[in-house]
UniProtKB/TrEMBL annotation:
Residues 168-178 have a biased composition (Basic and acidic residues). It holds the Pfam family Spermine_synth. Belongs to the spermidine/spermine synthase family. Residues 1-113 form the PABS domain. Residues 168-197 are annotated as: Disordered. The active site is at D32. SUPFAM superfamilies: S-adenosyl-L-methionine-dependent methyltransferases. Gene3D superfamilies: Vaccinia Virus protein VP39. GO terms for biological process: spermidine biosynthetic process. Keywords: Polyamine biosynthesis, Transferase. This is Putative aminopropyltransferase. GO terms for molecular function: spermidine synthase activity. Transmembrane segments: none annotated.
């Protein structure tokens, strides 16, 4: 039992729990799953994210463990693609330091189901403005508004890989559409001037 009346603890399979949850019940769902090996593989697949989206209220948000950018960019790419298809609001990858985790970092996917628009990149209620949050003996030692914003800043190689994957996914979607003929470019020092074909 818990000391908090609003807390209900359920011990069991989270996938089954969410499948049986009423539609639109939760404001937020936080998933700290195991690595996607064996039976846990379904935790990174589209049906699982669709189940989460169904259980969230229209303005609901998901924070999902999303591996290390140093070890699993292919998995992050796949999860981002799935979440961008499943969640109609903002979808972002963020990361933080966890010294005990392999590579020392862990990532998160932050997803908004629909609307109103959610700006994950900036704190809604900056910790520095909350009464008593920064008092000696009570202050949070790591988190602050700057660390929050920095969590979304990705190293160049990660940003390129994620953007490249997103561009490829968009290209795959548009391959059946007619593509406009590109204009020829004449390259000159310090400029590029389009010319008629």
């Amino acid at each position: 039992t818990h000391a908090f009346a609003r807390v209900q603890l359920h011990v069991g399979d989270a996938v089954d729990f969410l499948r049986n949850a009423p539609e639109g019940k939760y404001d937020a769902i936080i998933v700290d799953s195991s690595d996607p090996i064996g039976p846990a593989q379904e935790l990174v697949e589209k049906p699982f994210f669709q189940t989460i989206a169904r259980a969230l209220k229209p303005a609901g948000v998901l924070c999902n463990q999303a591996e290390s950018m140093w070890l699993h960019t292919h998995l992050i790419q796949d999860m981002l693609s799935i979440c961008r298809e499943t969640f109609k609001g903002a979808v972002h990858y963020a990361w933080t330091s966890v010294p005990t985790y392999p590579s020392g970092v862990i990532g998160f996917l932050l997803c908004a189901k629909e609307g109103p628009a959610v700006n994950f990149l900036s704190p809604v209620n900056p910790i520095e403005k909350l009464e008593g949050a920064m008092e000696a003996g009570r202050e949070i030692r790591f988190y602050n508004s700057e660390v929050h914003r920095a969590a979304f800043v990705l190293p160049t190689f990660v940003r390129r890989e994620l953007e490249s994957h997103n561009t490829c996914a968009e290209k795959d979607k548009s391959e059946t559409k007619p593509v406009a003929k590109p204009k020829k470019m004449k390259i000159m020092p310090n400029s590029a001037i389009p010319t008629a074909s």
